[in-house]
């Protein structure tokens, strides 16, 4: 009886209504008549929680009893998206709730729109973590996700005079119905101070004496599996001041200082850093990293593992998966726990630690590789720095043993970088400590081995592997695209939702005229739905007869939003110069979504330019409404779920060799958009699967990029020799999009002409030629729809369920599922 959880409420409409009204009355403290939409949303969320609770308790209990190996996913970011729709889907309650609410005069869709999404991530890396924990729950793999409960998630983007302005994202302000704080499981996390040695019955040991500490409070979130009665846990940590911290100061009579120090401690989980590729070496960021990783390891070792667990068996019980280098400080932390706290022998502890971590790399850009100055690290985490030094000494000794005294190689491979400043290379530490290192798409993994870490690949045969990213079909197909989901299910049954390769069974229907008509009607329906959302949100309209051409992703020069702008300017120029009659232009609506890191000046200028080009093009009567540029602010998961299903064309146009994988590319293909893309990241695998004839490829390949780089790239040569390109750039430079002011976009133009790190100009001609082919192809709607259907049918590979199977087989070796 003590371990049997109370069953959830009855799943009848009546049962639901009773429970909902109870929550409204007793939880929110209002009557139905008094209640606001927010009251109703909160009561509904809590009601849905009740249905999940028994399964959650049961899943946790069984995981504890079974003693099987599980995964601890360590990620500084989880870009979850709204929870309500997914919880209803996972419990099959959508209809019951819809009917029940209707009987009370409440519209479910209205309550769903009330939810503020937890935006606890920047982009691809954070969304990937959210997809992975969804898949693990659905597949019944024991997993705890560990991360940070930021009080402010990714900033809310607004535009003022066409330029980005950041607003704080106070996602908790209206209530947080999905979280369960567990203050009794709080952990103390130390910082600063010094280390000292002491004699422990004849053995000399080291201990760390921190100067200050903060309390880490866990907040648990349910991660429901799809219709399988399982609910895994996401545990996010919040920093609060320790009582001792402020009491000491308070007792010393300094009330103000006591309050200030409290704020200081609580700053650690205050806000998500909005950079998504350029680490700045900020002290608070390192505090965040150590804070959540130390709390997670403590939680696992002291609270999740049964009492008296023999830590020599740790590798049989857990694998800590490092989502990029952000949690790598967990490596010296586990060593510190084993050696200093558990008094284990160093070699033994290192043998265990090496088996407990695996590292996923998400980038190739050199400036994105994290390094922490020895100065800062030594000040904040003195014991960890000592441990890192010893790991490095022993590692370099092994390198010497294998390769001899090759000083150049030693310097290249050292975990400690000497120039421009002494610093710890976190990717190297992760590679040395990780049992496996993986890239996130075939091309990326290959380049990682050959270009970023070749010495390590040689030193550690078999350590490097690939796991191509995936996306959850529950959120990005079933929930985001109900109409297409319905058609698919009607055609091939429901199995696809948890076995996405079954979409293959749709292939023959590409030749079925009636199926094509229904498929095309669904795309049109999704465009109207996106139109309704954009109209209500931003006052935008998407004309019914336009091709919808979408580029949504973080703003970064390597992703080349500028190339897209140059295409739009070229189409505009063709019309206004009279080269082409507006009536002969394929009508297109371009939709952009992109946030720029607050300190990334060039990215912000590019946002300004997109908005400026949009304002000019949209207002010019000569265009006759045949080109439209829409840039809804604050692109997030919620908007993605509306825009992606409406897209005809997916823009994946990064410079070859720069986008590790991309995951938006997968979401678009699965929703029946055709891709125009470079041979980069997972685009390569998408094209292989859908077939060349169903993919618009352009641009240099990675080896061609390398060759051009080696030969000496001169962007101005392309400007001088290509009149189309020259006209587009000149038009921007002329002030045509900035009220005649030539200075506004001068930095963008001169950067393109004289630097162009990501070779926009070199790929321009190829891009325009391929876009012209897109226009022609779109003219044959039957053929286009055939291709779109084949894109859906052939991209089942990109389910994050498959990614999880690959992680299990190649990296985790957790027990097989099903
Ligand atoms: C680092 C330091 C300080 C603040 C933030 C960061 C940081 C945060 C996120 C650095 C990188 C971050 O994310 C990188 C990222 O999102 N990479 C993307 O990962 C996706 C999932 O694997 C891939 O699909 C994308 O190609 C890759 O760009």
Automatic annotation (TrEMBL):
Listed A to Z, the keywords are: Carbohydrate metabolism, Glycogen metabolism, Glycosyltransferase, Phosphoprotein, Pyridoxal phosphate, Transferase
Q: Which residues carry this modification: N6-(pyridoxal phosphate)lysine?
A: 667
Q: Name one GO biological process term.
A: glycogen catabolic process
The source's superkingdom equals Bacteria
Cofactor(s) the record lists? pyridoxal 5'-phosphate
Its catalytic activity? [(1->4)-alpha-D-glucosyl](n) + phosphate = [(1->4)-alpha-D-glucosyl](n-1) + alpha-D-glucose 1-phosphate
Signal peptide range equals none
* InterPro entries for the chain: Glycg_phsphrylas, Glyco_trans_35, Pyridoxal_P_attach_site
Question: Which GO cellular component does the record give, naming just one?
Answer: cytoplasm
* Enzyme Commission number(s) from the entry: 2.4.1.1
One of the entry's Gene Ontology molecular-function terms is:
glycogen phosphorylase activity
Per its UniProt record, what NCBIfam families does this chain match? P_ylase
Question: Member of which family?
Answer: Belongs to the glycogen phosphorylase family.
Cited function: Allosteric enzyme that catalyzes the rate-limiting step in glycogen catabolism, the phosphorolytic cleavage of glycogen to produce glucose-1-phosphate, and plays a central role in maintaining cellular and organismal glucose homeostasis.
Listed name of the protein: Alpha-1,4 glucan phosphorylase
Kindly list the organism's lineage: Bacteria, Bacillati, Actinomycetota, Actinomycetes, Micrococcales
